[in-house]
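Worked example 3. Consider a protein that binds biotin.
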Amino acid sequence: MFDAKKIKKLGFSNTAIFSSVDSTNDFLSEMTTSGKESIIAVSQMQTKGRGRFAREWVSLKGGLYFSFTEKHENIVYPLQLFPIACAIGVYRYLESLRIPLLRYKWPNDILVKNRKISGILCEFSESVIIAGIGVNINTEAFPEEISDFAVSVYSIKRREYSLTDALVEIVNNIRNVKNSAEITKFMNESGMIGKRIMFSSNGRIIEGTVDSFKENGEIVINSNSILESFIAGDATFVRERE
Ligand code: BTN
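Given these inputs, the predicted complex is written out as structure tokens:
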């Protein structure tokens, strides 16, 4: 199970630890609506784990599933960069485990050889952001439908890692992201620039190469020599599947 003492040291006013819950994001959403604005929730499993674009996030035992609140006023860079700061936090944790072929995919996926090892779902309310983070850490096997697209730390390292330590390190890494220059630098050095992607945004799909990232978090795509910037969307690398 989780080490409550270590999690409490992160300083949230409320800590919730579950063996199973529908979704830690949904739980936090109910809590913030009823006035609790400093809370972290973690669960061994989720029965209705959610991803971006209303996708399901398969949440089997062994993975790390947690959500925490961050007050808008505590974020020292533009709010729309917070999801990218979360990706930096996860990336730096996985990097510390020396996971090979780690790759960031805008805006906040972390992949290994084009398979997803972590996903992040940030939801904004009036005064807080709910950051929901899923990392496939000790997951031994995935259901067939996603086994070609998902990967876990366990499947790479063949050993288990402490989920509590992972959570604490990720939250601290996110808190250590200092400013928008650091975030832009991370995106620009992530290896995405020059890569060919299929990109969908608001029902539109384009194919192009990643040109750059802007300080406000936008991705700039070069499609047939026309540069277009997007603040939201979903990218898939082209011709790089195993
Ligand atoms: C994505 O890749 O689409 C985002 C996945 C986010 C999953 C996490 S797990 C903890 C939190 N609770 C949820 O229901 N979703 C997020």
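Take a moment to read the result before moving on. The first helix runs from residue 4 to 8. The first strand starts at residue 14 and ends at 21.
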